[in-house]
Amino acid sequence: xxxxxxxxxxxxxxxxxxxxxxxxxxxxxxxxxxxxxxxxxxxxxxxxxxxxxxxxxxxxxxxxxxxxxxxxxxxxxxxxxxxxxxxxxxxxxxxxxxxxxxxxxxxxxxxxxxxxxxxxxxxxxxxxxxxxxxxxxxxxxxxxxxxxxxxxxxxxxxxxxxxxxxxxxxxxxxxxxxxxxxxxxxxxxxxxxxxxxxxxxxxxxxxxxxxxxxxxxxxxxxxxxxxxxxxxxxxxxxxxxxxxxxxxxxxxxxxxxxxxxxxxxxxxxxxxxxxxxxxxxxxxxxxxxxxxxxxxxxxxxxxxxxxxxxxxxxxxxxxxxxxxxxxxxxxxxxxxxxxxxxxxxxxxxxxxxxxxxxxxxxxxxxxxxxxxxxxxxxxxxxxxxxxxxxxxxxxxxxxxxxxxxxxxxxxxxxxxxxxxxxxxxxxxxxxxxxxxxxxxxxxxxxxxxxxxxxxxxxxxxxxxxxxxxxxxxxxxxxxxxxxxxxxxxxxxxxxxxxxxxxxxxxxxxxxxxxxxxxxxxxxxxxxxxxxxxxxxxxxxxxxxxxxxxxxxxxxxxxxxxxxxxxxxxxxxxxxxxxxxxxxxxxxxxxxxxxxxxxxxxxxxxxxxxxxxxxxxxxxxxxxxxxxxxxxxxxxxxxxxxxxxxxxxxxxxxxxxxxxxxxxxxxxxxxxxxxxxxxxxxxxxxxxxxxxxxxxxxxxxxxxxxxxxxxxxxxxxxxxxxxxxxxxxxxxxxxxxxxxxxxxxxxxxxxxxxxxxxxxxxxxxxxxxxxxxxxxxxxxxxxxxxxxxxxxxxxxxxxxxxxxxxx
RNA sequence: GCGCGGGUGGUGAAAUGGUAGACACGCCUGCCUUAGGAGCAGGUGCCGUAAAGGCAUGGAGGUUCAAGUCCUCUCCCGCGCACCA
Length: 806
Known about the structure:
Elements: H1 7-21, E1 34-39, H2 51-69, E2 73-75, E3 79-80, H3 85-94, H4 98-115, E4 126-127, H5 131-146, E5 150-160, E6 165-167, E7 184-194, H6 200-205, H7 214-224, E8 227-235, E9 242-247, E10 258-261, H8 266-270, H9 278-290, H10 293-297, E11 306-314, E12 321-326, E13 338-341, H11 347-356, E14 364-365, E15 385-386, H12 397-410, E16 414-419, E17 425-426, E18 428-429, E19 439-442, E20 446-449, H13 477-480, E21 481-483, E22 490-493, E23 497-498, H14 500-503, H15 507-510, H16 523-529, E24 534-537, H17 545-558, E25 571-573, E26 577-578, H18 595-601, H19 604-613, E27 621-622, H20 629-641, E28 645-646, H21 655-670, H22 674-690, E29 694-695, H23 696-706, H24 711-720, E30 744-751, E31 754-762, H25 767-776, H26 778-784, E32 788-795, E33 799-805
Parallel strand pairs: 1-2, 1-24, 3-4, 10-12, 24-25, 26-27, 28-29, 30-33
Antiparallel strand pairs: 5-6, 5-7, 7-17, 8-9, 8-16, 10-13, 11-12, 14-15, 18-23, 19-20, 19-22, 21-22, 30-31, 32-33
Helix pairs in contact: 1-24, 3-4, 18-19, 19-20, 20-22, 21-22, 21-23, 23-24
The structure holds one RNA strand of 85 nucleotides.
């Protein structure tokens, strides 16, 4: 009796052998074509590895192993996104220093990943919280600073009172803190920003050059929010002032019945003397100030606002004056902070007009030429042809937009304008566990960048990191008080740290050259390995990390550091694995699955297979605690199959299905359809089991196909049948289409499109012979008898459809 | 409201316009046994005792010899964004 499959023994053995041999190191000297396969590097949380991590890493591991077998020089690295709030929050709770807990967690993660048999090049491991790394994060800050892409300004910013820090817009979506889910308040604070808006157009345009999931591309486009419209001025009667408004619907301008300013608009203050009801207006502005962003933007069906009595703005197209309002539904920080209101063609204007009893005039009609304009019970926001619009009558909306823009330009009142919703990236944080911002404030010299050779600005370890709203670093005497690098006088260091997303915006570059002491990465190394060919991670960072990383690449490209404009050429997301109850895994629900448990009971190979077999990688899917049994049984069958291997066995017996499987598995790995690749291998094993004996060649092919998925057991069996080098150094089997064709084929027989039977014939049977055979069969003939055969449709090798009529 | 995905057995899911439910889990019936989360053989969409047959991919139409797949309308679910003019 052959030895039983002992996953613990096998997996431990091979992991040690691979590590000793340095099997998965990327080769700097190889002439083979490169393939850079990257996982979104993890934040080493105290909870350890999660089945979701395992899903992500197994998928790219399979892909990397496959690419190695296909002759590529693969770079597949791993590192740690180690800075960040959770470590600090944990520290506050337990009084364990973030540096200590983070490094303990990294150790746990590393061990867990190794037991999964993930083929990382561990020699390139990086840790964003190490001075060797954050020195370059600081260097990037200075690069941006010196080129005007990093600046400090006082602005209304998102403040999370529970995290005691400011947040970027991207981290405060919907007015809620991305980390702790608490409501975010608006505060006027002086903060550091990166000028991501400078690249807004490129960030939109270059999305066309990458192979990313369509929803991710759509989300980024949506976030950047490009809009094309016109900006024009409107004179204010009886004053020398004018209002500039921005609109994307200039074609509706003849329907303008009023104008709205954002309450914070500067004109309000300047025109105060002309406003008759200024007390009421000021009161409204005060009320607005007290509202949070969320309250202001909440699905407030109820519109509020105040008319500026005594003031009117003139519509340049009609020459007619319209009233001016302030209302908080108009945002001060977008466009010009003022809009023309066309209630017939804008829902918000419509609601406002209803409330204030303002005229609603329809000027774009979908039923042109409509004799009368209907009474509207909601705004018509679509296109149509223009009515009541003077010389523009009868034009389509899109033509009118062009013509009206030209009209404004000719009169020098307005111009075409592109606006973006994207705002600059707020990067300073009033927290401890992050890279210090390398700036010094001198009473004489002002803002002074830390000289490059003074980097890194070390994060002091002896700091009370409990957040107070004041940056913890300001409390460290030795850190905070320094002398000015310019004049040598007493000065103070910037005490804010950088958003952790800054650290992760360039880590993929560092992997190309992780030990470099003179640059963030050598130019040659980056040109060799980058851009990333395959990037994989969760779909939750579509706007944050992926946008920031693209921004960094664009900055570096514009300064000539790198030749590429996009960092991640191909991107795929793995779907979230839910708990067995179909809910999101969480400690409080007690439905969290730990991969260790399954590695222990069934082995890493079985776990890897199960996670890949669960369903399409990108789908969200529930965990089935019993589901691993199928893949485990499959591996045992592969193990037992070894007993049937005979050198003299006939290879042809299984050729057809074998080659079909080679094709299917190869194609599926390239498409990330691992579930169907596994199913194809199961079919192959089922077929092999039916045979008395299997040729060594066929069995080897099976092991090679399976090796990216189940690397341990396949290497063990590979050696058992007489190979001396690791299976992971072998080539992927070559598909031979001539061997794919079976000698017998099954043809479906349809009568009038309905399946009535099947027939098995020799591969090269002529069509007429098949027709004859089919019609001779009584079970088929009974459907045809008494009817006229109108047509016979033959799909070669697949199907015969007899179309009958009465 | 807008954008992106989806709706197929008891479950996870397969299907270049060409035999719907591959592959697996579960379940049922045998066999075997060192009684195991074993192994082997067979069965398992629904209606029909069975056979014959019929019905089935959210719903309604349509195109086609042939539709889960293409087209129109519609319902439902998930995710993301949301007063950006």
